[in-house]
Design a protein that fits this description.
One of its GO terms (molecular function) is N-acyltransferase activity. Pfam families: Hexapep (PF00132). The chain is of the alpha/beta class. It has two domains: 189 residues, UDP N-Acetylglucosamine Acyltransferase, domain 1, CATH 2.160.10; 38 residues. Helix content is 16%, strand content 31%. The chain is built from one helix and 30 strands. It has an eleven-stranded mixed sheet. Strands 2-5-8-11-16-19-22-25-28 form a nine-stranded parallel sheet, with no helix packed on it. A hairpin with a 4-residue loop joins strand 29 and strand 30. The longest helix has 38 residues.
Length: 234
């Protein structure tokens, strides 16, 4: 009831669509997937099988939900794809930008918590769990099995290594590389990501390096003169 379906949309068997949802042209919903009430799928969005989207979800054009994750085992001299038989759960009031990918889980579900907002060009790998009301800015990439708490903010081009845990309300600065777990409420920057206070100290010291190098050159010259004078006396 009240559902709007654009031209060229493919809806497979067992799909459920809630009231007042809009599915724009060229979208596809795979078998046994569900779309809640008041949702909007822009053109060419693909929802794979067994994915569950809550109410008031917005997914912008050309994004893909539930594609097979990037998981391989090296067997007999070749990379063999590991089966990904899980699904994706996107909770209420989530918004996902254009050209994003959310991979299905190997088992269980990849989960995006209620109220989370995701910018364009973001990659979310298999079995990732993202908490409620997170903000993930463009070109960020989250590797498999990571867990983000509630209210986490990832700035542009942040990379998170596999299986990392990030605590509630943590902010990760632009282009940071997160390779270790981060506690709640922290502010980190850099690659590898470190605390903001330590990073500021490093920046200050880095700016002083040219002057320190000049002082070191002068000291080396003085020491060389003293050693030369000592040798002459001997």
């Amino acid at each position: 009831k009240g559902v709007s379906v654009g031209p060229g949309v493919v809806i497979d068997d067992g799909v459920e669509i809630g009231l007042n949802s809009i599915i724009a042209s060229g979208c596809k919903m795979g078998e046994n997937s569900t779309l809640g009430k008041n949702c909007r799928l822009d053109s060419n969005v693909v929802i794979y099988h067994n994915c569950r989207l809550g109410n008031n979800v917005v997914i912008q054009a050309n994004s893909t939900i539930g594609s097979t994750g990037f998981g391989y085992s090296f067997i007999d001299g070749a990379h063999k794809l590991i089966p990904h038989n899980g699904g994706v759960v996107i909770e209420d009031f989530v918004e996902i930008g254009a050209n994003c990918c959310v991979d299905r889980a190997k088992f269980g579900n990849t989960i995006i918590g209620a109220g989370t907002k995701i910018d364009n060009l973001v990659q979310i790998a298999h079995n990732v769990v993202i908490g409620k009301c997170c903000l993930i800015v463009g070109q960020a990439g989250i590797a498999g099995s990571c867990k983000l708490g509630d209210g986490v903010m990832l700035a542009g081009q942040v990379g998170v290594a596999d299986s990392v845990k990030i605590g509630d309300n943590t902010v990760v600065g632009a282009q940071a590389g997160v390779v270790n777990n981060i506690g709640a409420g922290e502010r980190v920057v850099g690659s590898p990501a470190i605390g903001g206070k330590e990073a500021l100290q490093i920046i200050v010291l880095t700016k002083r390096l040219p002057k320190l190098a000049e002082k070191l050159r002068q000291l080396s010259a003085r020491i060389e003169k003293l050693e030369t004078a000592k040798d002459d006396k001997e």
